[in-house]
Amino acid sequence: MIEINHVDKWYGPSFQALKDCTTSVTKGEVVVVCGPSGSGKSTLIKCVNALEPIQGGEIILDGIKVNDPKTDLPKLRSRVGMVFQHFELFPHLRIIDNLCLAQEKVLGRKHEEALAKGKKLLDRVGLTEHATKFPAQLSGGQQQRVAIARALAMDPIAMLFDEPTSALDPEMISEVLDVMVDLARDGMTMMVVTHEMGFANKVADRVIFMDRGEIVEDAKKTDFFGKPRSDRAQKFLSKILQH
Amino acid sequence: MIGNFDFDVIRRALPYLFFEGMRFTLTLTALSAFGGLVFGTLIAMMRLSGYRLLARVAGLYVDFIRSLPLVLVIFWFYFLVPYIGQWLTGASRPISVGAFASSLITFIAFESAYFSEIMRAGIQSISRGQPAAANALGLTYGQTMRYVVLPQAFRNMLPVLLTQTIVLFQDTSLVYVLSITDFLGAASKVAQRDGRLVEMYLFAALVYFVISSIASIGVRRLQARISIVR
Protein backbone atom coordinates (compact mmCIF):
# COMPACT_ATOMS: atom_id res chain seq x y z
CA MET A 1 0.00 0.00 0.00
CA ILE A 2 2.70 2.48 1.03
CA GLU A 3 6.24 1.82 -0.17
CA ILE A 4 9.08 4.07 0.87
CA ASN A 5 12.31 3.32 -0.97
CA HIS A 6 15.67 4.93 -0.18
CA VAL A 7 14.14 8.32 0.53
CA ASP A 8 16.44 11.30 1.09
CA LYS A 9 15.19 14.69 2.14
CA TRP A 10 17.15 17.86 2.65
CA TYR A 11 16.18 21.14 4.26
CA GLY A 12 18.49 23.51 2.49
CA PRO A 13 21.92 22.38 1.40
CA SER A 14 23.28 21.52 4.83
CA PHE A 15 20.60 19.67 6.80
CA GLN A 16 19.54 16.20 5.80
CA ALA A 17 16.22 15.41 7.44
CA LEU A 18 15.82 11.90 6.04
CA LYS A 19 18.67 9.57 5.16
CA ASP A 20 18.04 6.60 2.91
CA CYS A 21 14.75 5.64 4.56
CA THR A 22 13.19 2.41 3.35
CA THR A 23 10.08 0.78 4.74
CA SER A 24 6.58 -0.18 3.72
CA VAL A 25 3.05 -0.50 5.04
CA THR A 26 0.89 -3.26 3.63
CA LYS A 27 -2.90 -3.21 3.38
CA GLY A 28 -4.59 -3.40 6.77
CA GLU A 29 -1.34 -2.99 8.64
CA VAL A 30 -0.87 -0.57 11.53
CA VAL A 31 2.64 0.82 11.72
CA VAL A 32 3.77 3.06 14.55
CA VAL A 33 6.69 5.41 13.95
CA CYS A 34 8.50 6.61 17.06
CA GLY A 35 11.74 8.25 17.97
CA PRO A 36 13.16 11.31 19.73
CA SER A 37 12.07 14.77 18.57
CA GLY A 38 13.92 15.96 15.50
CA SER A 39 14.43 12.39 14.33
CA GLY A 40 12.47 12.97 11.11
CA LYS A 41 9.40 10.89 11.89
CA SER A 42 6.91 13.69 11.17
CA THR A 43 8.86 14.62 8.06
CA LEU A 44 8.69 11.03 6.86
CA ILE A 45 4.92 10.80 7.22
CA LYS A 46 4.43 14.17 5.49
CA CYS A 47 6.44 12.89 2.56
CA VAL A 48 3.98 10.05 2.07
CA ASN A 49 1.28 12.39 0.73
CA ALA A 50 3.83 14.85 -0.65
CA LEU A 51 3.11 17.64 1.81
CA GLU A 52 6.91 17.67 1.93
CA PRO A 53 8.87 17.07 -1.26
CA ILE A 54 11.71 14.55 -1.30
CA GLN A 55 15.05 14.87 -3.07
CA GLY A 56 16.01 11.24 -3.49
CA GLY A 57 14.40 7.82 -3.67
CA GLU A 58 10.74 7.15 -4.30
CA ILE A 59 7.44 6.76 -2.49
CA ILE A 60 4.73 4.62 -4.01
CA LEU A 61 1.17 4.87 -2.76
CA ASP A 62 -1.28 2.25 -3.93
CA GLY A 63 0.77 1.74 -7.09
CA ILE A 64 1.15 5.45 -7.86
CA LYS A 65 4.52 7.15 -7.58
CA VAL A 66 4.06 10.14 -5.25
CA ASN A 67 7.20 12.03 -6.27
CA ASP A 68 6.48 11.85 -9.99
CA PRO A 69 5.81 15.37 -11.34
CA LYS A 70 3.04 13.92 -13.51
CA THR A 71 1.10 12.57 -10.54
CA ASP A 72 -2.21 14.32 -9.85
CA LEU A 73 -1.37 15.17 -6.25
CA PRO A 74 -4.74 16.55 -5.11
CA LYS A 75 -6.45 13.38 -6.36
CA LEU A 76 -3.88 11.14 -4.71
CA ARG A 77 -4.05 13.07 -1.43
CA SER A 78 -7.83 12.85 -1.37
CA ARG A 79 -7.46 9.07 -1.08
CA VAL A 80 -5.23 9.20 1.99
CA GLY A 81 -6.53 10.64 5.24
CA MET A 82 -4.23 12.73 7.37
CA VAL A 83 -4.58 13.83 10.98
CA PHE A 84 -2.34 16.60 12.30
CA GLN A 85 -0.82 17.37 15.67
CA HIS A 86 -2.72 20.66 15.90
CA PHE A 87 -6.02 19.30 14.44
CA GLU A 88 -6.17 22.00 11.74
CA LEU A 89 -9.93 22.14 11.59
CA PHE A 90 -11.07 25.11 9.53
CA PRO A 91 -12.03 27.62 12.23
CA HIS A 92 -14.39 29.65 10.04
CA LEU A 93 -16.58 26.63 9.22
CA ARG A 94 -19.02 24.77 11.43
CA ILE A 95 -18.09 21.21 12.37
CA ILE A 96 -20.45 19.67 9.83
CA ASP A 97 -19.15 22.00 7.09
CA ASN A 98 -15.60 20.98 7.97
CA LEU A 99 -16.68 17.44 7.16
CA CYS A 100 -18.55 18.34 3.98
CA LEU A 101 -16.13 20.78 2.27
CA ALA A 102 -13.69 18.35 0.68
CA GLN A 103 -16.38 15.73 0.03
CA GLU A 104 -18.22 18.23 -2.14
CA LYS A 105 -15.34 20.17 -3.68
CA VAL A 106 -12.95 17.26 -4.25
CA LEU A 107 -15.12 14.18 -4.61
CA GLY A 108 -18.03 16.06 -6.14
CA ARG A 109 -20.60 14.59 -3.78
CA LYS A 110 -24.00 16.25 -3.52
CA HIS A 111 -24.56 18.28 -0.37
CA GLU A 112 -27.18 15.87 1.00
CA GLU A 113 -24.89 12.93 0.44
CA ALA A 114 -21.93 14.68 2.07
CA LEU A 115 -24.15 15.75 4.94
CA ALA A 116 -25.40 12.21 5.56
CA LYS A 117 -21.85 10.86 5.46
CA GLY A 118 -20.62 13.63 7.76
CA LYS A 119 -23.37 12.97 10.29
CA LYS A 120 -22.67 9.26 10.25
CA LEU A 121 -19.00 9.84 11.00
CA LEU A 122 -19.71 12.43 13.68
CA ASP A 123 -21.87 9.80 15.29
CA ARG A 124 -19.04 7.31 15.01
CA VAL A 125 -16.68 9.60 16.94
CA GLY A 126 -19.46 10.47 19.38
CA LEU A 127 -19.92 14.14 18.53
CA THR A 128 -23.31 14.30 16.83
CA GLU A 129 -24.61 17.04 19.10
CA HIS A 130 -21.73 19.36 18.16
CA ALA A 131 -22.44 19.42 14.41
CA THR A 132 -23.42 23.07 14.21
CA LYS A 133 -20.73 24.42 16.53
CA PHE A 134 -17.51 26.07 15.45
CA PRO A 135 -14.18 24.32 16.13
CA ALA A 136 -13.13 26.85 18.78
CA GLN A 137 -16.14 25.81 20.88
CA LEU A 138 -14.84 22.24 21.21
CA SER A 139 -12.14 20.81 23.44
CA GLY A 140 -8.86 19.64 21.95
CA GLY A 141 -9.84 16.00 22.16
CA GLN A 142 -13.17 16.69 20.48
CA GLN A 143 -11.48 18.71 17.75
CA GLN A 144 -9.08 15.88 17.04
CA ARG A 145 -11.94 13.41 16.81
CA VAL A 146 -13.64 15.74 14.33
CA ALA A 147 -10.38 15.86 12.38
CA ILE A 148 -10.34 12.08 12.22
CA ALA A 149 -13.98 12.05 11.09
CA ARG A 150 -13.17 14.69 8.46
CA ALA A 151 -10.40 12.49 7.05
CA LEU A 152 -12.62 9.38 7.14
CA ALA A 153 -15.38 11.19 5.26
CA MET A 154 -13.20 10.94 2.15
CA ASP A 155 -13.29 7.12 2.33
CA PRO A 156 -9.50 6.93 2.48
CA ILE A 157 -7.55 3.81 1.60
CA ALA A 158 -5.07 4.60 4.37
CA MET A 159 -4.73 7.01 7.26
CA LEU A 160 -1.67 8.98 8.33
CA PHE A 161 -1.46 10.31 11.88
CA ASP A 162 1.15 12.92 12.72
CA GLU A 163 1.48 12.97 16.51
CA PRO A 164 -2.29 13.09 16.97
CA THR A 165 -2.20 13.28 20.75
CA SER A 166 0.90 15.40 21.38
CA ALA A 167 -1.01 18.68 21.63
CA LEU A 168 -3.70 17.29 23.91
CA ASP A 169 -4.22 17.59 27.63
CA PRO A 170 -3.56 14.20 29.27
CA GLU A 171 -7.21 13.55 30.11
CA MET A 172 -8.20 13.91 26.45
CA ILE A 173 -5.64 11.55 25.00
CA SER A 174 -7.60 8.38 25.59
CA GLU A 175 -10.77 9.55 23.82
CA VAL A 176 -8.70 10.10 20.67
CA LEU A 177 -6.75 6.87 21.06
CA ASP A 178 -10.01 4.95 21.50
CA VAL A 179 -11.20 6.17 18.11
CA MET A 180 -7.87 5.18 16.59
CA VAL A 181 -7.93 1.74 18.18
CA ASP A 182 -11.43 1.19 16.76
CA LEU A 183 -10.19 2.22 13.39
CA ALA A 184 -7.22 -0.13 13.55
CA ARG A 185 -9.46 -3.02 14.57
CA ASP A 186 -11.73 -2.27 11.60
CA GLY A 187 -8.79 -3.07 9.38
CA MET A 188 -7.78 0.45 8.36
CA THR A 189 -4.25 0.79 7.00
CA MET A 190 -2.54 3.20 9.35
CA MET A 191 0.81 4.90 9.72
CA VAL A 192 1.00 6.60 13.08
CA VAL A 193 3.71 8.90 14.41
CA THR A 194 3.26 8.82 18.17
CA HIS A 195 4.92 8.50 21.55
CA GLU A 196 1.97 6.53 22.90
CA MET A 197 3.63 3.17 23.44
CA GLY A 198 0.45 1.82 25.02
CA PHE A 199 -1.31 2.39 21.73
CA ALA A 200 1.59 0.78 19.84
CA ASN A 201 1.48 -2.20 22.14
CA LYS A 202 -2.26 -2.60 21.72
CA VAL A 203 -2.81 -2.35 17.97
CA ALA A 204 0.45 -1.90 16.07
CA ASP A 205 1.67 -4.65 13.79
CA ARG A 206 5.08 -3.09 13.39
CA VAL A 207 7.10 -0.40 15.08
CA ILE A 208 9.62 1.80 13.30
CA PHE A 209 12.18 3.61 15.40
CA MET A 210 13.88 6.64 13.86
CA ASP A 211 16.83 8.68 15.00
CA ARG A 212 18.63 11.54 13.24
CA GLY A 213 16.78 11.00 9.98
CA GLU A 214 17.47 7.29 9.79
CA ILE A 215 15.25 4.30 10.29
CA VAL A 216 17.15 2.50 13.01
CA GLU A 217 14.65 -0.24 13.80
CA ASP A 218 11.84 -1.67 11.75
CA ALA A 219 10.47 -4.67 13.58
CA LYS A 220 7.34 -6.60 14.51
CA LYS A 221 5.78 -5.14 17.63
CA THR A 222 6.62 -8.16 19.78
CA ASP A 223 10.23 -8.10 18.65
CA PHE A 224 10.52 -4.38 19.18
CA PHE A 225 9.19 -4.36 22.73
CA GLY A 226 10.89 -7.66 23.49
CA LYS A 227 14.43 -6.66 22.77
CA PRO A 228 15.25 -3.70 20.53
CA ARG A 229 18.49 -4.46 18.78
CA SER A 230 20.00 -0.99 18.67
CA ASP A 231 21.41 0.92 21.62
CA ARG A 232 19.61 4.06 20.56
CA ALA A 233 16.19 2.39 20.51
CA GLN A 234 16.86 0.80 23.86
CA LYS A 235 17.84 4.13 25.37
CA PHE A 236 14.73 5.81 23.92
CA LEU A 237 12.42 3.12 25.24
CA SER A 238 13.95 3.13 28.68
CA LYS A 239 13.44 6.90 28.83
CA ILE A 240 9.79 6.98 27.82
CA LEU A 241 8.73 3.79 29.56
CA GLN A 242 10.24 4.36 32.98
CA HIS A 243 7.30 6.46 34.20
CA MET B 1 -18.55 85.86 11.97
CA ILE B 2 -21.11 83.49 13.46
CA GLY B 3 -23.53 86.42 13.40
CA ASN B 4 -23.90 86.40 9.66
CA PHE B 5 -23.53 82.64 9.33
CA ASP B 6 -26.09 81.70 6.70
CA PHE B 7 -27.60 78.30 7.45
CA ASP B 8 -30.09 78.74 4.67
CA VAL B 9 -27.32 78.49 2.05
CA ILE B 10 -26.56 75.02 3.38
CA ARG B 11 -30.22 74.03 3.56
CA ARG B 12 -30.87 75.06 -0.01
CA ALA B 13 -27.77 73.24 -1.24
CA LEU B 14 -28.56 69.99 0.59
CA PRO B 15 -30.24 68.09 -2.28
CA TYR B 16 -27.42 69.01 -4.62
CA LEU B 17 -24.72 68.20 -2.06
CA PHE B 18 -26.09 64.79 -1.19
CA PHE B 19 -27.87 63.51 -4.28
CA GLU B 20 -25.14 64.62 -6.65
CA GLY B 21 -22.02 65.03 -4.54
CA MET B 22 -22.33 62.41 -1.83
CA ARG B 23 -23.75 59.88 -4.25
CA PHE B 24 -20.68 60.24 -6.43
CA THR B 25 -18.35 60.07 -3.42
CA LEU B 26 -20.00 56.93 -2.04
CA THR B 27 -20.16 55.25 -5.43
CA LEU B 28 -16.49 55.95 -6.07
CA THR B 29 -15.57 54.77 -2.56
CA ALA B 30 -17.54 51.54 -2.82
CA LEU B 31 -16.37 50.62 -6.32
CA SER B 32 -12.76 51.51 -5.56
CA ALA B 33 -12.81 49.51 -2.33
CA PHE B 34 -14.31 46.51 -4.10
CA GLY B 35 -11.92 46.70 -7.05
CA GLY B 36 -9.00 47.38 -4.75
CA LEU B 37 -9.87 44.35 -2.66
CA VAL B 38 -10.16 42.03 -5.66
CA PHE B 39 -6.95 43.18 -7.33
CA GLY B 40 -5.19 43.65 -4.00
CA THR B 41 -5.94 40.03 -3.12
CA LEU B 42 -4.57 38.90 -6.48
CA ILE B 43 -1.41 40.98 -5.96
CA ALA B 44 -1.00 39.57 -2.45
CA MET B 45 -1.35 36.02 -3.83
CA MET B 46 1.24 36.82 -6.50
CA ARG B 47 3.66 38.09 -3.88
CA LEU B 48 3.22 34.95 -1.81
CA SER B 49 3.04 32.54 -4.74
CA GLY B 50 6.61 31.34 -4.56
CA TYR B 51 7.12 32.12 -8.25
CA ARG B 52 9.93 34.62 -8.06
CA LEU B 53 9.01 36.54 -11.20
CA LEU B 54 5.35 37.00 -10.20
CA ALA B 55 6.36 38.01 -6.69
CA ARG B 56 8.88 40.49 -8.05
CA VAL B 57 6.43 42.11 -10.47
CA ALA B 58 3.80 42.45 -7.74
CA GLY B 59 6.34 43.81 -5.28
CA LEU B 60 7.60 46.41 -7.74
CA TYR B 61 4.05 47.50 -8.51
CA VAL B 62 3.22 48.01 -4.84
CA ASP B 63 6.46 49.89 -4.16
CA PHE B 64 5.96 52.05 -7.23
CA ILE B 65 2.39 53.02 -6.37
CA ARG B 66 3.19 53.68 -2.74
CA SER B 67 5.98 56.07 -3.60
CA LEU B 68 3.75 58.42 -5.61
CA PRO B 69 1.42 61.11 -4.28
CA LEU B 70 -2.17 60.11 -4.96
CA VAL B 71 -3.25 63.51 -6.23
CA LEU B 72 -0.45 63.50 -8.78
CA VAL B 73 -1.52 60.14 -10.14
CA ILE B 74 -5.16 61.21 -10.36
CA PHE B 75 -4.17 64.24 -12.37
CA TRP B 76 -1.62 62.43 -14.47
CA PHE B 77 -3.89 59.50 -15.19
CA TYR B 78 -6.75 61.73 -16.32
CA PHE B 79 -4.59 63.26 -19.01
CA LEU B 80 -2.70 60.10 -19.88
CA VAL B 81 -5.44 57.48 -20.13
CA PRO B 82 -6.95 58.97 -23.35
CA TYR B 83 -3.56 58.65 -25.01
CA ILE B 84 -3.01 55.12 -23.75
CA GLY B 85 -6.47 54.25 -25.06
CA GLN B 86 -5.57 55.78 -28.41
CA TRP B 87 -2.33 53.83 -28.51
CA LEU B 88 -4.03 50.56 -27.57
CA THR B 89 -6.90 50.83 -30.03
CA GLY B 90 -4.96 52.58 -32.75
CA ALA B 91 -7.56 55.33 -32.96
CA SER B 92 -6.71 58.59 -34.67
CA ARG B 93 -7.65 60.79 -31.71
CA PRO B 94 -7.24 60.43 -27.95
CA ILE B 95 -10.12 58.42 -26.50
CA SER B 96 -12.21 60.25 -23.97
CA VAL B 97 -12.75 58.13 -20.88
CA GLY B 98 -14.56 60.59 -18.71
CA ALA B 99 -13.58 61.84 -15.32
CA PHE B 100 -15.44 59.14 -13.41
CA ALA B 101 -13.86 56.19 -15.23
CA SER B 102 -10.46 57.79 -15.04
CA SER B 103 -10.67 58.48 -11.31
CA LEU B 104 -12.11 55.03 -10.64
CA ILE B 105 -9.22 53.35 -12.45
CA THR B 106 -6.74 55.50 -10.52
CA PHE B 107 -8.28 54.70 -7.17
CA ILE B 108 -8.48 50.99 -7.89
CA ALA B 109 -4.84 51.00 -8.97
CA PHE B 110 -3.91 52.82 -5.79
CA GLU B 111 -6.09 50.97 -3.36
CA SER B 112 -5.11 47.57 -4.75
CA ALA B 113 -1.54 48.35 -3.68
CA TYR B 114 -2.64 49.22 -0.14
CA PHE B 115 -5.20 46.42 0.13
CA SER B 116 -2.64 43.93 -1.14
CA GLU B 117 -0.38 44.69 1.80
CA ILE B 118 -3.30 44.16 4.18
CA MET B 119 -4.35 40.90 2.52
CA ARG B 120 -0.74 39.74 2.47
CA ALA B 121 -0.56 40.20 6.22
CA GLY B 122 -3.91 38.43 6.49
CA ILE B 123 -2.78 35.45 4.46
CA GLN B 124 0.47 35.24 6.40
CA SER B 125 -1.47 35.28 9.66
CA ILE B 126 -3.01 31.89 8.77
CA SER B 127 -0.90 29.08 10.19
CA ARG B 128 0.79 26.87 7.63
CA GLY B 129 -1.10 23.89 8.97
CA GLN B 130 -4.33 25.22 7.45
CA PRO B 131 -3.30 25.00 3.79
CA ALA B 132 -1.50 21.75 4.62
CA ALA B 133 -4.73 20.27 5.99
CA ALA B 134 -6.67 21.51 2.98
CA ASN B 135 -4.09 20.03 0.60
CA ALA B 136 -4.11 16.76 2.52
CA LEU B 137 -7.86 16.54 1.89
CA GLY B 138 -7.22 16.87 -1.83
CA LEU B 139 -8.14 20.52 -2.33
CA THR B 140 -6.17 22.19 -5.11
CA TYR B 141 -4.21 25.42 -4.59
CA GLY B 142 -7.13 27.45 -5.94
CA GLN B 143 -9.69 25.68 -3.76
CA THR B 144 -7.46 25.96 -0.71
CA MET B 145 -7.19 29.70 -1.24
CA ARG B 146 -10.86 30.18 -1.98
CA TYR B 147 -12.43 28.04 0.72
CA VAL B 148 -9.85 27.94 3.50
CA VAL B 149 -7.19 30.66 3.43
CA LEU B 150 -8.85 33.75 1.95
CA PRO B 151 -12.07 33.60 4.01
CA GLN B 152 -10.00 33.47 7.19
CA ALA B 153 -7.56 36.12 5.99
CA PHE B 154 -10.44 38.37 5.02
CA ARG B 155 -12.20 37.90 8.33
CA ASN B 156 -9.05 38.54 10.33
CA MET B 157 -8.28 41.65 8.33
CA LEU B 158 -11.82 43.04 8.02
CA PRO B 159 -11.31 45.84 10.59
CA VAL B 160 -8.12 46.97 8.86
CA LEU B 161 -9.74 46.77 5.43
CA LEU B 162 -12.65 48.88 6.63
CA THR B 163 -10.34 51.41 8.25
CA GLN B 164 -8.49 51.70 4.96
CA THR B 165 -11.86 52.20 3.25
CA ILE B 166 -12.61 55.12 5.59
CA VAL B 167 -9.30 56.67 4.55
CA LEU B 168 -10.29 56.02 0.95
CA PHE B 169 -13.64 57.73 1.56
CA GLN B 170 -11.74 60.87 2.55
CA ASP B 171 -9.17 60.51 -0.21
CA THR B 172 -11.85 60.47 -2.92
CA SER B 173 -12.20 64.22 -2.29
CA LEU B 174 -8.91 64.61 -4.18
CA VAL B 175 -10.84 64.20 -7.44
CA TYR B 176 -11.53 67.93 -7.07
CA VAL B 177 -8.41 68.42 -9.19
CA LEU B 178 -10.47 67.09 -12.10
CA SER B 179 -13.33 69.48 -11.27
CA ILE B 180 -15.57 66.52 -10.52
CA THR B 181 -18.71 67.04 -8.50
CA ASP B 182 -18.02 64.75 -5.59
CA PHE B 183 -19.26 65.85 -2.17
CA LEU B 184 -16.42 68.29 -1.58
CA GLY B 185 -16.56 69.42 -5.20
CA ALA B 186 -20.28 70.14 -4.89
CA ALA B 187 -19.75 72.05 -1.66
CA SER B 188 -16.96 73.99 -3.25
CA LYS B 189 -19.08 74.91 -6.27
CA VAL B 190 -21.89 76.20 -4.10
CA ALA B 191 -19.37 78.09 -1.99
CA GLN B 192 -17.90 79.84 -5.01
CA ARG B 193 -21.28 80.55 -6.58
CA ASP B 194 -22.88 82.01 -3.45
CA GLY B 195 -19.70 83.44 -1.97
CA ARG B 196 -20.30 81.40 1.19
CA LEU B 197 -16.92 79.74 1.67
CA VAL B 198 -17.00 79.55 5.47
CA GLU B 199 -20.42 77.91 5.68
CA MET B 200 -19.88 75.38 2.93
CA TYR B 201 -16.39 74.29 3.87
CA LEU B 202 -17.29 74.02 7.55
CA PHE B 203 -20.34 71.99 6.67
CA ALA B 204 -18.33 69.72 4.35
CA ALA B 205 -15.79 69.13 7.10
CA LEU B 206 -18.58 68.34 9.55
CA VAL B 207 -20.15 65.79 7.19
CA TYR B 208 -16.84 64.02 6.53
CA PHE B 209 -16.13 64.03 10.26
CA VAL B 210 -19.50 62.59 11.24
CA ILE B 211 -19.52 59.85 8.59
CA SER B 212 -15.94 58.80 9.26
CA SER B 213 -16.43 58.80 13.03
CA ILE B 214 -19.56 56.69 12.87
CA ALA B 215 -17.83 54.27 10.53
CA SER B 216 -14.81 54.08 12.85
CA ILE B 217 -17.00 53.31 15.84
CA GLY B 218 -18.70 50.62 13.79
CA VAL B 219 -15.34 49.10 12.90
CA ARG B 220 -14.26 49.08 16.55
CA ARG B 221 -17.45 47.27 17.56
CA LEU B 222 -16.93 44.76 14.79
CA GLN B 223 -13.34 44.23 15.90
CA ALA B 224 -14.49 43.47 19.43
CA ARG B 225 -17.01 40.96 18.12
CA ILE B 226 -14.53 39.20 15.85
CA SER B 227 -11.95 38.86 18.60
CA ILE B 228 -14.52 37.14 20.79
CA VAL B 229 -15.50 34.68 18.08
CA ARG B 230 -11.86 33.80 17.55
Automatic annotation (TrEMBL), chain A:
The keyword Membrane applies. It is found in: Cell membrane. It comes from the Bacteria. Pfam families: ABC_tran. CDD domains: ABC_HisP_GlnQ (cd03262). One of its GO terms (molecular function) is ATP hydrolysis activity. It is a peripheral membrane protein. GO terms for cellular component: plasma membrane. Residues 2-237 form the ABC transporter domain. SUPFAM superfamilies: P-loop containing nucleoside triphosphate hydrolases. Keywords: Amino-acid transport, ATP-binding, Cell membrane, Membrane, Nucleotide-binding, Transport. The keyword Flavoprotein does not apply. Belongs to the ABC transporter superfamily. Involved in beta-(1-->2)glucan export. Transmembrane domains (TMD) form a pore in the inner membrane and the ATP-binding domain (NBD) is responsible for energy generation. This is Arginine transporter ATP-binding subunit. It comes from Bradyrhizobium macuxiense.
UniProtKB/TrEMBL annotation, chain B:
It is found in: Cell inner membrane; Cell membrane. This is Glutamate/aspartate import permease protein GltK. The keyword NADP does not apply. GO terms for biological process: amino acid transport. Pfam families: BPD_transp_1. Belongs to the binding-protein-dependent transport system permease family. HisMQ subfamily. One of its GO terms (cellular component) is ATP-binding cassette (ABC) transporter complex. Keywords: Amino-acid transport, Cell membrane, Membrane, Transmembrane, Transmembrane helix, Transport. GO terms for molecular function: transmembrane transporter activity. The chain crosses the membrane at residues 24-46, 58-79, 91-110, 160-180, 200-219. Part of the ABC transporter complex GltIJKL involved in glutamate and aspartate uptake. Probably responsible for the translocation of the substrate across the membrane. It comes from the Bacteria. It is a multi-pass membrane protein. The complex is composed of two ATP-binding proteins (GltL), two transmembrane proteins (GltJ and GltK) and a solute-binding protein (GltI). Residues 22-219 form the ABC transmembrane type-1 domain.
